[in-house]
Write a structure and sequence with these properties.
Blueprint (H helix, E strand, L loop, with lengths): L11 H6 L28 E2 L8 E2 L5 E2 L3 H8 L9 H5 L2 H19 L6 H11 L1 H11 L12 H5 L5 H11 L14 H13 L1 H4 L21 H20 L6 E8 L5 H15 L3 E6 L8 H19 L5 H29 L3 H4 L12 H5 L4 H22 L5 E6 L6 H15 L2 H4 L2 E8 L8 H11 L3 E7 L5 H12 L3 H15 L3 H13 L4 E3 L4 E3 L2 H5 L7 H8 L5 H11 L4 E3 H6 L12 H9 L3 E4 L4 E4 L2 H9 L3 H19 L9 H4 L3 H13 L7 H22 L4
Parallel strand pairs: 4-7, 4-8, 5-6, 6-7
Antiparallel strand pairs: 1-3, 2-8, 9-10, 11-13, 12-13
């Protein structure tokens, strides 16, 4: 009826000019595809990355691409793209033939066999060309049949997928029911819909489950990060392949992911690390440095390696024979490589090492009397920490000889320079050990807008760049493009491009592609029912007029707070308490808080599932911690607490933890008794100090000063491991 049959190749330009402006349509890919597949023997094809804009690596080592199915498993379904230039290369009749093939592919693979008319039509189309042309000519004079009570959609919905019914309905009925459909303006919108169905059948040709309309959540997958995801998985895959073949990988593998705060660094690496842990058998350990807490850097690294050692300790009693043998082999190797004197020094930094191997505290501890009595200087401190770094490097090398080990450190820009030096020494030492570098991967994340050429992290990265022992890959996350946001919205709503274009245009304009802004804004639209499921239209729907009046309102802070407004009061109170600890808090500390007057009567535990389910918190199993999904969320929750209430919260939390730990009775206690409680002691003291002590009387100030002295002495003893 649109008169398509009247067009000819001579006026193809007129047809092309009528096509709507599409920022990124579908790109017709060859059968081979854009990414390498496994060869018959199971090996990966190796390709040099030469396309502009792809992640860069400092080494000349041939890259190993991951299985495309691995990338898809993390991305979910990625929508294919097509550049506008394709239209200029398509002859109109060729386009019609392409449309016919796409239609045939869709209908032959999805229409139930109980519907014979499809086969009849296809047979007639191939055997009676003249009759078809004559029918097209006569059909323009035949009046539209009346549908009575039914609609095109309802008439077809029992036999065809919703997306097909929706397309046909929008092609036929908008003139009768314009409020229920999206008018199709051009032939190419039809092609676009059909290509979506054929390229992503799991999205568009499999009808969603009954609870689909009530479970719309944006930001769960890594939309717009396919190149970076492929590069990350490619590094892990190459390590696995070299290990399987027994080839020497040559260098330690280190990947650094940079971008602005909220660009999705932690989200991307979190997805990759979880995937390689569950599918690839990697042992993944994660840690995150905190803003304004440089003094905690060594403790953060210490806690991570304590977790590594405790995992090996737990393997001693495992029912898995391989785990038991691995634990025994590591214990023997540690004693042989590090020795008892080294273990005595190392146990000050990693107390759990004494549970893995027996450590004699007396052997090797003698010193000259005058040296023992003199105070430690700053040079002594540096030499001591350098020795600890060497011992930790040896420990990692031993652990990585038999198991795949991945260390992830987030927000490296907030780490102390000596801690960064320790991590550098670990990576380079592993790179110099042929058997250890085969199973080792380091993943580091940092905010590139918070470092400059003089920043310690920049210096460390330059060292890696020049190192012959480290193969470094740098990935920089840019803002999400309109195509990336289109991909996200199409995937989550299961709607084609023409349905979501207005929504995507508005979201991209308001957020400028900032990843966390995009997800928070979309979630706010769902929360406020601006995006809602329409049973009448069988799809998610929204008002274009409402969207046009949308504005960001300053920054992401308001969106974060508003998105939390639907939580129960107890859940909000729990978040306020947890935010006082920063980006993460150990589960043991949360357990110690039970009975604190600052908590809801029922405690925090009943609300954890809700907070994790809404994406506010995540359970970091490897560190036995609760972690805010992003530091911006923690920051805005914390800053939204009234000042006086915030001071009171810190004081209540610190006092309660100090009482549970019996800090008053630990004054003057030996190091061995106090050391296991050190992380909780520092947590209590930090809370006390954050209160400012302005409301405390003299007795309380003296008491808290003693607690600070206890924590300070413990910190000094742990740093001066030769003492």
């Amino acid at each position: 009826e649109a008169g398509i049959g009247q067009k000819t190749s001579s006026n193809r330009g007129d047809v092309l000019d009528s096509a709507p402006e599409i920022d990124n349509g579908y790109k017709v890919r060859s059968a081979r595809g854009d990414y390498p597949f496994r060869t018959p023997d199971g090996d990966f094809e190796k390709n040099e990355v030469t396309r502009p804009g792809t992640p860069t690596t400092t080494s000349q080592t041939t890259a190993c691409s991951p299985d495309p199915s691995s990338v898809d498993a993390i991305l979910g379904v990625e929508i294919a793209t097509m550049e506008n230039e394709i239209y200029a290369e398509i002859e109109f009749h060729a386009a019609l033939r392409m449309l016919g093939r796409v239609l045939q592919q869709i209908f032959l693979s999805t229409v139930p066999e109980t519907v014979p008319s499809t086969a009849v039509y296809l047979r007639d189309a191939s055997e009676h060309q003249d009759r078809r042309v004559d029918f097209q000519h006569r059909s323009r004079r035949v009046p539209r049949p009346r549908l009575g009570e039914s609609t095109v959609f309802s008439s077809l919905s029992e036999q065809l997928p919703f997306s097909v019914c929706r397309l046909l309905s929008d092609m036929i009925e908008p003139a009768l029911m314009p409020e229920d459909g999206v008018r199709i303006e051009t032939f190419f919108q039809v092609v676009d819909d059909l290509l979506s169905m054929s390229e992503s059948p799991s999205l568009y040709l499999l009808d969603p489950s009954a609870d689909f309309h009530s479970s719309l959540v944006f930001g769960q997958r890594c939309h717009g990060r396919k190149d970076e995801l492929t590069s990350l998985l490619g590094v892990a895959t190459r390590i696995e392949e070299c290990t399987r073949r027994g080839d020497d990988i040559g260098k330690a593998q280190a990947v650094f992911v940079s971008g602005k705060g909220g660009s999705g660094k932690s989200h991307l690496v979190g997805h990759v690390s979880t995937f390689i842990s569950e599918v690839g058998g990697w042992n993944v350990y994660r840690a995150k440095f905190r803003r304004g807490a440089v003094h905690e850097s060594k403790d953060i690294v210490s806690v991570l390696f304590n977790c590594v050692v405790m995992d090996i300790v737990a393997m001693k009693d495992s029912e898995n024979r391989e785990d038991v043998e691995y634990s025994r082999a590591v214990s023997s190797a540690i004693i042989e490589v590090i020795g008892n004197e080294g273990l005595r020094v190392l146990s000050g930094f990693i107390p759990s090492i004494s549970k893995l191997v027996e450590v004699d505290p007396g052997q090797g501890a003698s010193c000259e009397a005058e040296d023992c009595e003199r105070p430690y200087s700053e040079n002594d401190m540096k030499e001591s920490y350098s020795r600890v770094s060497h011992l930790v490097s040896a420990l990692v090398a031993v652990i990585a000889k038999e198991r795949l080990i991945c260390l992830c450190f987030d927000d490296l820009q907030w780490a102390e320079s000596s801690t960064l030096a320790m991590l550098r020494q670990i990576i380079i030492s592993v790179g110099q050990d042929e058997s250890s570098r085969q199973r080792f991967l380091f993943l580091g994340m940092y905010r590139d807008d918070e470092i400059n050429d003089g920043h310690p992290l920049a210096s460390e990265i330059n060292i890696f760049r020049d190192s012959s022992s480290v193969d470094m890959t740098l990935l920089e996350l840019s803002p999400l493009s309109k195509s990336d946001i289109m991909n996200m919205v199409m995937s989550e709503t299961r709607l084609t491009r023409r349905h979501v274009k207005t929504l995507v245009d508005v979201v991209h304009k308001v957020t400028i592609g900032h990843a966390i802004f995009v997800t928070q804004l979309l979630q706010s639209l769902v929360r406020d029912s601006i995006i809602s499921y329409s049973p009448l239209k069988h799809r998610f729907d929204w008002s274009d007029r409402v969207l046009e009046s949308l504005s960001m309102g300053g920054d992401v802070a308001s969106l974060v707070v508003e998105n939390l407004s639907s939580l129960q009061p107890g859940a909000l109170k729990s978040l306020e308490v947890l935010s006082c600890f920063g980006i993460q808090v150990s589960l043991q500390t949360v357990t110690m808080l039970q009975g604190c007057s600052c908590l809801p009567e029922e405690g925090i535990e009943p609300y954890l599932d809700e907070l994790v389910g809404k994406g506010v918190l995540s359970r970091e199993v490897s560190l036995s911690s609760l972690v805010f999904s992003h530091d911006l969320i923690q920051q805005h929750i914390y800053e939204n607490i009234p000042s006086e209430e915030r001071i009171s919260l810190h004081l209540e939390i610190g006092t309660h933890l100090g009482s549970v730990l019996s800090l008053d009775s630990l004054m003057g206690a030996p190091f061995s008794r106090v050391a296991p409680q050190y992380p909780f002691i520092t947590a209590a003291v930090n809370q006390i100090n954050s209160s400012g002590l302005s409301s405390c009387d003299t007795h309380q100030r003296l008491r808290f000063a003693q607690w600070n002295a206890l924590a300070g002495k413990q910190s000094w003893d742990r740093s001066n491991c030769d003492a």
